[in-house]
Amino acid sequence: MKKRFLSSLILLIIFSTSCNKEPATLPYATYETQIMVAGAPNMRDLGGFYGENGKRVLYHKLFRCGDLSKLTTSDLDTLSALGINQVIDLRKSAEIASAPDILPQTGVTSTNLPLFASVSGGLSDAQIIAGVLQGTISVDAINQHMISLYNTIDSLKIANWTKAFAILQTTGNTTLFHCKSGKDRTGMTAALILFSVGVSQNDIVGDFMASNIYLSKTIAEELSALDSIYGAGSSDKLKPLFGVQDFYIYAFFNAVNAKYGSMDNFLSSLGVYKTKMRALYLEK
Predict the structure, then answer these.
(1) Residue 11: inside a domain, yes or no?
(2) Which segment of 56-70, 134-148, 190-204 scores lowest on mean pLDDT?
(3) Averaged pLDDT for residues 178-195
(4) Angstrom distance (rounded) from CA 245 to CA 74
(5) Residue among 250, 174, 186, 175 at smallest CA distance from 215
(6) Dist. CA 113–CA 96, nearest whole Å
(7) Domain range for residue 213?
(8) Would you state the pLDDT for residue 22?
(9) What pLDDT does residue 7 have?
(10) Does residue 12 form part of some domain?
(11) What pLDDT shows up at residue 196?
(12) What pLDDT score does 25 carry?
């Protein structure tokens, strides 16, 4: 009788203890930020940043990149292995026509949501280069042009950022968003996404500036080619067109604050539900 009582008591304790335990949560998985693909050197995972309440952004959910027109067969295998099933292309239709994305044949949807009506103020790259080298376009004018791309918050950007967040909040799919080089339009979009999940502004600026690191080899090759074509030192005048400067993204932040009062207000105007974004893209 005593043995039976003790056995029942032990079972009761075990049962009570197991009922009071918190449900097990999966450990936070970390991965490399840079995605090694030959055809897109600025491709990276937004995972790992600390968001609201110290929760980290999930890896393998949100990717940023330049255009995908040069992806190799091996690169496509990488995209498939990462589970990327949704692409948001922030380029103009003319850019897409001249360099269409190469995507896995099945399982990936692509949505075009352009952010700039005109990437170069109506001028072609060749016209800008010629203008700088001939002295009709100053380096300061290039900087001002770049800043204007960031501090202009027009109806096109508002409409398409609204659509982008609607996609992100509705599906929770693994998404890759990109523009041409993955630094300007993609940089602003990444900033908005990271703000929406509570990442600090310092970390957001760090992510923005990281394009200079990931694109360093590509930028060096492009500048060297300009020197070969137009003469030594020519590239020095054209550097503002390559890479990013921190005052670009700060111009964006300042424009948002001036027009909307705060980034939170701006995100609300875009239909962003921070609780939804955080539920989908932060660790549990």
Answers:
(1) no
(2) 134-148
(3) 97
(4) 32
(5) 186
(6) 11
(7) 28-281
(8) 45
(9) 42
(10) no
(11) 98
(12) 64
Per DSSP, 96 falls in state: H
How much is the average pLDDT of 90-107?
Answer: 94
173 lies in a domain?
A: yes
CB hemisphere CA count around 25 (13 angstroms): 6
* Rg for the chain, CA atoms, rounded: 24
Tokens describing residue 119: 């990437």
User: How many beta carbons lie within 10 A of that of residue 168, not counting itself?
Assistant: 23
Tell me which residue of 2, 49, 27 sits closest to 191, measured CA to CA.
49
Spell out the residues 6+ positions from residue 171 whose beta carbon is closer than 8 angstroms to its own: 86
84: three-class secondary structure by DSSP: coil
Residue 275: CATH number of its domain: 3.90.190.10
d(CA 219, CA 223) in angstroms, rounded, equals 6
Q: What SS3 class is residue 279?
A: helix
pLDDT(151) > 90: yes
Reported as a single tens digit per residue, the pLDDT across 31-48 is: 999 999 999 999 999 999
Sheet holding 175-178, edge to edge: 44-45, 62-65, 175-178, 86-89, 109-112
Grouping H, G, I as helix, E, B as strand and the rest as coil, residue 195 is helix
Q: Is residue 141 part of a domain?
A: yes
More confident residue, 134 or 30: 30
Long-range pairs, 83-86, Cβ under 8 A, ≥24: 83/174, 84/108, 84/174, 84/175, 84/176, 85/109, 85/173, 85/174, 86/110, 86/111, 86/167, 86/171, 86/173, 86/174, 86/175, 86/176
Q: What is the pTM of this model?
A: 0.87
Does residue 158 contact residue 265 with C-beta atoms inside 8 Å?
no
DSSP H helices in the chain: 2-20, 73-81, 93-98, 125-134, 139-151, 155-171, 185-196, 201-209, 211-214, 216-230, 234-238, 246-260, 263-269, 274-281
Report which of residues 37 and 5 the model is more confident about: 37
Tokens encoding 147: 């800043």
Per the structure, the count of domains in the chain is: 1
d(CA 165, CA 107): 21
pLDDT at residue number 248: 96
